[in-house]
DNA sequence: ATCGGAAGTCAACAACTGTTGGCCAACGGC
DNA sequence: GCCGTTGGCCAACAGTTGTTGACTTCCGAT
C-alpha cells in the first residue's frame, strides 16, 4: 500500500489531490465528480491531476484502494459477534470526512461498474474471509457473509446516502442494539432449508 | 395517475419513450443515461423526447412516478408479516425489465438528490403508512419502517445492483426464509432500550 | 552562477451533453 | 381536394467534460 519511492517535492500536492478527490467522490459519486472541481478543491490546476494520476479512472482507483480494517473476531465471544461487527462499521463510516472511503465506493458503485467491481473484490477478500473464521460450517460462509453485507450496506445506504430521517435519528448505540441481533442471526443461526 | 386527455395519435411513441427511458435509467442511472441513447432505444429522434416530456428531469420524474403496490397487511397473520413483505418486494423487482421501477430509483438515488428525494417520499407515503397498520405502538412505526427499509433496500442493492454472487445464487424462496425473520423482528420485536 | 529537471500554469482540442428552432410529411375535418 | 394541426427529422448551439501540449517558474546540485 505504501510503496513509496524516493520522497518527492510534490508529495504534499499529491496527497492534497487525493484528499480532495476522496471528499468529492464521496459527495458526488464517480460521474458527477469532475477533475476540474477536484483540482479546484485542492487549489491547483486540473492538469496536475492528470500528470500525477494519469486519468480519472486511475485517480478513483487510488482514492478507493482502502482497507476496511476488520478486527480479528476469533477472540470475540460468539454471542457478541453481531454487535461487534455493526459497531465496527458504524465507527468506520461515522468518522471524519476523508476517511469515509467505504461511502465513496458505495455511492459510486450504484452506477459505475468499476466501482461495483472494487466493492465485490473488497467483499470477497476482506469480509468473506473474516466471516469464515467465525462460522461453524465453512460451506455456508459465503452465503452468511452475503446476508451480513446486505444488512450493513443497506443501513449505510439508508442512513448516510439516502438520509432517511427515521434512521438518521438513531444513535450508533441504538443501531447496534437493533441491527446487531440481525447480523448475529445471519452469522450463527442454522440456515433454514430452501 | 392515468389522467389522460383525448387519445392522441402519438400515444404509442410517448409510451415507447417512457419504456426505453425506464430501461436506460435502470441500467445506467440518471446521469449516465442520455436523452440520445433513450431516443435511439425508442427508435425516434432525441428532439421528440424533449417535445413530449419537456426536459430530462421531467422524463425521469415521469418514469419514476410509480406505485409500490404494497398489499393490505391487516389480513395477514401477525407471524407472517415479515415473509409476506419480503416475498412482495422480491416479486416486485424480479419481474420483467421495464417494470423494475424501484431499481431505477435505487440506482439513481445514490448520486442524484432528486431521485433520493423521490425515494424518501415513497418511503414516507407508501412504506411507513403500511407499517403503521401492523405495528403495536404507532410511535415506533417510523423507526421500525426505517429498519425494514434498510434491510430490503440493502438486499436489492447487493443482489441486483452490486450483484454479489453469494446473494444472486439464492432463490427467492431461500431469501424469504432467511430475510423474512429479520423483517418480522424489526416489525414486532420489542425495541431494546438505547 | 548555472544548468537540468521538476512543479506548476495556461490555453486549447475533441467529444459529448441537454436543448432549441426550422423544416418536411402525413393525417383528418371541412 | 384543401389546409391547419400534428408527428417527426435534421442541424445546430452553448456548455461541460477528460485530456493534451507548450510555456514559465522554481529549486537543488554542480
Strand content of chain A: under 5%
Binned, the helix content of chain A reads: 55-70%
Outline of chain A: elongated
User: Based on the structure, what is the oligomeric state of the protein chains?
Assistant: homodimer
Which class of secondary structure composition applies to the elements of chain A?
A: mainly alpha
Rg of chain A, nearest Å: 19 Å
**Span from first to last CA of chain A?**
42 Å
Helix-strand pattern of chain A: HHHHHHHHHH
Q: Uncertain spans of chain A, ≥5 residues at pLDDT below 50?
A: none
- Give the overall pLDDT of chain A as a whole number: 93
For the biggest sheet of chain A, the summary is: none
Count the E strands of chain A: 0
Largest interface here, residues on each chain? A-B, 53 and 53 residues
Count of helical regions of chain A: 10
Please summarize what this structure is:
The structure is a homodimer of 194-residue chains. The first copy, chain A, has 194 residues and is an all-alpha fold.
Mind explaining what this structure looks like?
The structure is a homodimer of 194-residue chains. With 194 residues, chain A is an all-alpha fold. Chain A contains 10 helices and no strands. Chain A has helices spanning 11-32, 35-42, 46-53, 56-64, 81-94, 101-109, 113-134, 141-161, 165-168, 172-188. Chain A is elongated, with a radius of gyration of 19 Å. The model of chain A has no long low-confidence stretch (mean pLDDT 93). Chains A and B meet through helix 1, helix 6, helix 7, helix 8 and helix 9 of A and helix 1, helix 6, helix 7, helix 8 and helix 9 of B. The structure holds a DNA duplex (30 and 30 nucleotides).
Amino acid at each position: 500500500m505504501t510503496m513509496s519511492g524516493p520522497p518527492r517535492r510534490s508529495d504534499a500536492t499529491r496527497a492534497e489531490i487525493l484528499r480532495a478527490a476522496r471528499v468529492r467522490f464521496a459527495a458526488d459519486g464517480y460521474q458527477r465528480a469532475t477533475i476540474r472541481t477536484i483540482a479546484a478543491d485542492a487549489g491547483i490546476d486540473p492538469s496536475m491531476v492528470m500528470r500525477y494520476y494519469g486519468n480519472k479512472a486511475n485517480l478513483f482507483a487510488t482514492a478507493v484502494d482502502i482497507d476496511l480494517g476488520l478486527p480479528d473476531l476469533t477472540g470475540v465471544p460468539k454471542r457478541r459477534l453481531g454487535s461487534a461487527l455493526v459497531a465496527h462499521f458504524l465507527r468506520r463510516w461515522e468518522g471524519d470526512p476523508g476517511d469515509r472511503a467505504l461511502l465513496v465506493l458505495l455511492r459510486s458503485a450504484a452506477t459505475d461498474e468499476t466501482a461495483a467491481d472494487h466493492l465485490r473484490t473488497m467483499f470477497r477478500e476482506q469480509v468473506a474471509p473474516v466471516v469464515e473464521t467465525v462460522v461453524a460450517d465453512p460451506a455456508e460462509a459465503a452465503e452468511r457473509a452475503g446476508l451480513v453485507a446486505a444488512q450493513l450496506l443497506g443501513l449505510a445506504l439508508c442512513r448516510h446516502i439516502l438520509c432517511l430521517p427515521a434512521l438518521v435519528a438513531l444513535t450508533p448505540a441504538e443501531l447496534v442494539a437493533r441491527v446487531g441481533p440481525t447480523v448475529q442471526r445471519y452469522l450463527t443461526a442454522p440456515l433454514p432449508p430452501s
